[in-house]
Write a structure and sequence with these properties.
2 copies of one chain form a homodimer. Chain A is of the alpha/beta class. Helix content of chain A is 37%, strand content 21%. The first copy, chain A, has 9 helices and 13 strands. Chain A has a 5-stranded mixed β-sheet with strand order 3-2-1-4-8, with helices on both faces. A 5-stranded mixed β-sheet of chain A has the order 11-10-9-12-13, with helices on both faces. Chain A is globular, with a radius of gyration of 20 Å.
Chain lengths: 317, 317
């Protein structure tokens, strides 16, 4: 009998850390979440993760490696965290090393969007492709690129930052300090602001009766035929299409997948995005590249981080 | 004595075809130009090139392969020309095969900007890098990407089209049919239009006395301290910087080189471009990526095409 290898996946989000015991096929055997207590600092976080792992020792005594991921500027090769929007005040931290020395296991660390792309490549929408780009739409807009079976990282591990391509020079201010980034136009906050602006024009909408709403609420309203919601998501899709056209012109991928919470709005965004993409392509020959929904939902990063850990074991023998 | 291998390089431009006999070090031993008679069709062009090659047979009896390049949408792997702005009416032509059957030699075919990048990687500004992007600024704005020692082509051979990334949604119409492409903002025509617009504001300029001028004239005027010319090139540089920032965020290259005729304006464009690049980056850590002038001048594509041919010989034994 072949021994089943298991790894620990750790997906550090802004509010929660998702954890999973994952086998070599990328199947999540057991999963859980713990709160992200960023204010307590990295040591405390490593302790929290260790404690969760201890709780699983009965069922899963042997773990061979761990794959960590987190939003932000990260160098996967050096396992170095430059900064993260989810981990306020954490800067220039050897987070991979910290986890490794406490867990006593080989540890990988990478960007959450890179891991989502790697997960989708291995078990989702990118399977079997030679050049694959995966976008993650949420509060932030992230991306990951897989070229010939390897996560493409560039010279500093910072490639694939599709959310910070400028598509509207001089446009709205982005959280990163620049202007007119894709994220500043299609991130969750931008979608909510766009919807508010449409409502402010006096358009009747179920959303107009509420003080506060989320992108999920906008998507629900759109599904019920709410005109303001449909228009807001459609305009969002038009900008997404421009970002996709730029990705096509630079990477000429085989498939592009779109995931993340905002992608839950489905064809209300993706439909107009595909139309806009087509309009912004330099040649008909490029128009056949499929833009498809991601398949792994909110587990994509966890699964991808686990696959990176599995790969590390293989590579390092 | 090791036998010196020689190849024929053929760089098909809008007015001229540059030809060269190139050795295995990428040194151009002999070069010449013939007019591009696109209206006569591909067969006639192949004949013209053959005739030039025959003229060199005395000095260079043995040629082992040929590397062809040309502007436009090309698939290097299939050696297929979809279309070219320089070759009006040529569409969907197996140009590589046509040259190969008539020359009786292994032939490579690729995009001129890809070849420029490949030339700069092998003998110019990109030597020794693991991830290199080269922009070619002229009437068109092209690009090529070299990753880990290989020209990156993507799924259809159409990657690296940096000139057709949209950086100003809804911006000026581009020759490709889209709007707000980098090429529509920093291509030669856009620079001339920008300068005319500045002159129309009534700004005194040596260029105001002329009916017609080129980017080279604008650069000369700038070198003489002409305010309108300096401003026009500066504004061009600001848009270039945004395009560079997008390249940094997507590819995270080690070095970016900028060549082509328009790059002859030097720091009047590159200075403001570097400043604008810095302003549009999402993190300080990305600001160290050097943006340098290309080194091979107008021979970059010819040299790169020749290196592709040399590589084909090696690969195919």
């Amino acid at each position: 009998m072949v021994k089943m290898i298991k790894v620990l996946g750790v997906d550090i989000g802004g509010t929660d850390i998702k954890l999973g015991i994952v086998n070599q096929k990328g199947e999540v055997l057991h999963s859980g979440t713990i709160p992200t207590r960023a204010a307590q600092g990295p040591e405390a976080m490593v302790n929290d993760v260790l404690q969760w792992r201890e709780g699983q020792r009965g069922d899963h005594p042997e773990i061979t490696a761990a794959g960590i991921d987190c939003a932000g500027l990260l160098d996967g090769k050096r396992r170095w965290l430059y900064s993260s929007p989810n981990l306020s005040g954490w800067e220039n931290i050897p987070l991979g090393e910290m986890f490794e020395s406490r867990l006593g296991l080989p540890v990988t660390l990478d960007n959450d969007a890179n891991c989502a792309a790697w997960g989708e490549y291995n078990r989702g929408a990118g399977r079997g492709t030679k050049c694959f780009v995966c976008l993650t739409l949420g509060t932030g807009v992230g991306g990951g690129v897989v070229i010939e079976g390897r996560l493409y990282r560039g010279s500093q591990g910072l490639a694939g930052e599709v959310g910070h391509q400028v598509i509207l020079a001089g446009g709205p201010r982005c959280g990163c300090g620049s202007r007119g980034c894709l994220e500043a136009l299609i991130g969750a906050d931008a979608i909510i602001k766009r919807t508010r602006d449409i409502l402010a024009e006096g358009k009747a909408s179920v959303l107009g009766e509420r003080d506060d709403f989320t992108v999920r609420d906008i998507a629900s309203a759109a599904r019920e035929g709410d005109g303001a919601a449909v228009r807001s998501l459609g305009e969002t899709g038009e900008f997404l299409g421009i970002g996709l056209a730029n990705i096509v012109h630079l990477f000429n991928p085989e498939v592009i997948a779109v995931g993340g919470g905002v992608a839950g709005a489905g064809d209300f965004i993706l439909g107009p995005a595909r139309e806009s993409l087509r309009k912004h392509l330099m040649g008909e020959v490029l128009s056949g590249i499929p833009v498809v929904p991601a398949q792994l939902g909110n587990r994509a990063s966890l699964v991808g981080a686990s696959f990176l850990a599995l790969e590390k074991i293989k590579t390092e023998g």
